[in-house]
Structures are given as C-alpha cells and as structure tokens.
Automatic annotation (TrEMBL):
GO molecular function, one term: endonuclease activity
PANTHER family in UniProt: SLL1072 PROTEIN (PTHR35400:SF3), SLR1083 PROTEIN (PTHR35400)
Domain Putative restriction endonuclease residues, every copy: 22-188
SUPFAM superfamilies registered for this protein in UniProt: Restriction endonuclease-like
Protein name, as recorded: Uma2 family endonuclease
Amino acid sequence: MTVLEDRIAMADDNAQHLDEWFELLERVVPEGIKAEVVEGAVHMVPQRDTHFEIIRRIIRALEDRFGMDVKVRSDVRIDFPGFENGFCPDVMKLRDDAERDPERGWCHEDVEFVAEVISRGTGMNDYGPKKAAYAQADVPVYLIADPYQGRCHLFTDPKDGEYRTESRFDFGERIDLTHTLLDLTLDTATFPRD
C-alpha cells in the first residue's frame, strides 16, 4: 500500500469506530449531557447555564453578522484529524456552500470557525488535543471562552498543524475579528463567569 492508501484506510477505521461509539452514546447518554470522543476517549459533561449563555451569545453575534440562515451548529458531531476525534463543538460555523453528507455528516474541511466554552472536567481537551486537531484541520478561527478565568483565547493563522497567532481578551472586552473571515467584533461584556 502507498502512504495515501494507508491514511485513507486509517481514516475509514477511525470513522467506523466513531460511528460505533456514537451509536452507543445516543442510546445511553441522558438529555442535557454532552458526549464526545477525543483521541479515542469518551468525555461527558452536563450542560450548565453559564456554558449555554456564552454559546447563545456567540451564536447571536454570528446570526447578527451573517443572518439567520448562517450555517452554525452546536453540539453536532464532526470528525477531525487525528486518532478517533469525534468532536461536538460548542459552536461551529460552516462555509456557506457546505453540504452535509448523509453518511458522514459535516466535513471538517468546511469549518470556518469553532468556539469552545470551557467545562471544568474537559477544559484540558479544549486547550490541548482539540486545539491541535483544529489547527491540523486548518480551522481559520478558534475561540476558547473560559468562564473560570473570565477570559477568551483566540487562535488564528493555522499552519503546519499549529496556530501561529494567539490573543487573550478578558470578559468585558470586545474581540476584534474584523481581520478574520468572520469580519465582526464580538462583545464579551455580558459573558457570565463561573
């Protein structure tokens, strides 16, 4: 086999394992619990009010900028590069022309923006393996909102599997995203803290 054929076979194996995981999770995980697979490990956390309020404000900013038909998803599985990475981003914006494959779902190549809101039990994933997978997938804009720190971390300019630019903003500041494909300013003044 060639290297390309090996990678395709590995991707198919990962997708099959993820499909099996998510079929099981859909049967056993109760409503209100977010479940995803990060590097082959299942992580589950309850949805908190603070978490949801930040997600809602980010989605609202995207809808205000792009209209109600913007392709924004929350907690929807999408497979990212790496070993068994079936993530359910808190917020993701897809390209306008993105189309959902009936068998595979959304493609990570169509993701333009991801926002993750930190949960105490899974924050290390957002700062670690998920950040690495988003960079490897060339997601142009990755935002982490951390209600425990009261701070947002913005990562842009992915290249060679790493983000080359990182900025930090305290809750209450306006995040200038006009230099990105989002072309908006995100006001964090009403982001609640934990």
